[in-house]
Prior knowledge:
The chain is of the alpha+beta class. It contains 6 helices and 15 strands. Helix 1 (3-18) packs antiparallel against helix 2 and helix 5 packs parallel to helix 6 (206-218).
Amino acid sequence: MLIVEIEKILRQAGEIILNADYSEIDANEKDGHANFVTNYDRKVQSFLKNELLKLEKDASFIGEEGEMGNINMQGLTFIVDPIDGTTNFIKNLKHSAISVGVLKDGEPYIGCVYNPYLNEMFGAQKGLGSFVSGKKIHVSNKPLNEGLVIFGTSPYYGEYKDLTFKSAYEYYNKALDIRRSGSAALDLCYVAAGRYELFFEYCLSPWDYAAASIIITEAGGVIRRIDNKELRFDEPCGIIAHNGLCE
Ligand code: IPD
Ligand code: CA
Ligand code: CA
């Protein structure tokens, strides 16, 4: 399987998002505050599942919208977020992405994150570096006091509210400024591309960071769990990612 084959599928999936008919969006709340799923999240996920499994029929498939396969420890696993930034999508903010991570024998192997609105394709394969739309990317070389910090609010987990804003306040004092975008996958890719220096969020799911984790490491950055345990792809966790100069 080639990364370009995955990218082609992501571009096609991007068309579904770009052509969304806003008069027929059907948004339902899932578990947790402001945690929505729309008919388009389901449509994109089912398209991706169909097409990705044509590339690798024996691969395991894990998707945010109710497809909880197991990680294949001897073979490939797709970990998919059909729309990262669903609230942005519902609000027509045009800042959402499709995220496909591939694990090989349980380890990050390929990552692709596509923002259809800007036609920006972030991609990485183990040992081959990270790219945005074909151009090699690298994390920035700026220290925290010259850097931007982007963070997620873990909106579906109210218990992290105080910690999140305490950390945001601390980083606001140490960095140039702070940001909040609504798409963790894009935030991580922007760190990989040197647009931001550091990202943190106290609770994410594996589909939010599976693809971006290899995009960060292949771009020379650092990604780790906030609790310092080994990064894994079968449970939610807090994530911090940066350019290697910000901790
Ligand atoms: C969410 C976004 C958001 C982050 C949340 C994620 P979703 O993903 O990435 O930026 O703060 O923690 O769950 O639900 O839009 O796919
Ligand atoms: Ca997500
Ligand atoms: Ca999603």
